[in-house]
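Input sequence (405 aa), recorded before submission:
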Amino acid sequence: MIQSKLKTIFLALGATLIAVSMIILPVETFEASKRGLNIWWGTVFPSLFPFFVISELLIGFGVVKFIGIILEPLMRPLFRVPGVGGFAWAMGMASGNPAGAKITARLREEKQISKIEAERLVSFTNYSSPLFIFVAVSVGFFHNKGLGILFAIAHYLGNILVGLIMRFYGYSKKEKLEVKNKKFRVWEAVRALHRTRIEDKRPIGKLLGDAVVSSIHTLLMIGGFIILFSVINRLLFHLQITALLASVIKEFFATLHFPKQLTIPFISGLFEITIGSDLVSRVKESTLLQQSILTSFILGFGGFSIQAQVASILAQTDIRFKPFFIARILHGLFAAIITLLIWGPIFGKHHETNKLPISLPVFLQDSHSFLDKLSQWGIEYGPIITICSLLLYIFIYSKRNVYRK
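Predicted structure, token format:
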């Protein structure tokens, strides 16, 4: 009872402090809000919207059920989740945060996975997208294409290790018996696909409309969290709270022989990965290895902004947030350790410079060029995609309300 009251007082004081700070610092609040809106408007919405809609359609058409039965022999032994988890894993890796949580919650709503399986699955299906790692972080912040390979290996391998550890979460002997009796049949997967499509009696038009409405609902929520945490991060800096936290963390950094100048960028990264990664790359007093280790941790941890987005998505189901939060800490630690371990083989004696010791393969150079063009295309046409999608959402939503009345 006392703990609950203390939590209430703490939350009330925190909200009051933020409200007063916004009144005292209106210019800083406005600039932070505008920055968060620009990130959502031009990048997050156009990059995630197609994936969200397609995932909804694939679930409705029964394709996910088909994939689930096909991947059951792989996902069960490795991660102790159903085969449909492979769909969440792949889509989360391709589209970035928080797509894995969105798809996992949807699978749980469809009762295709149990509560424990959902908590395992969501712990290792949320990634930073390849576009963000290679273009925004490695090229945009560090101006080093080779670091994208380093960050990607550490990030994706670290999350796989998290999945292998979380397979023991909530494990029971009953699950082991179910795995032994599970057989792999292609025709069973085809029948399941057809059965799922027949049972979902919605016409294609209704299914598409539901996919658009559900996706935009989620993206509007994500946009709100991005703007909110952009403001909170800026206010904490101006209120010297970030500096206070940095004074504590710098003692830990001193034991690791990390310069104290990295503390404030690191704390910023704990709140928002884009801001944190950018600030870490600007610290001239640190080595590239130190910057890379902290950036890998920040990418793995995900930041409180993304975690709040995931928490909001999971709150609509019975999936608990605590396993996901613990998994993010593990992911950050694993990614940082992997970065340290593979630094020598990739960079060798050149780790103090911003150049790779060897030239990148042609196919990787081409992929970077493609990602650069894709990023520029997104910056130019992203807001247009957002406007058109919102207009479509308004049209579908208003039409349905008129129909209901």
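Checked by second reader. The chain has 18 helices and no strands.
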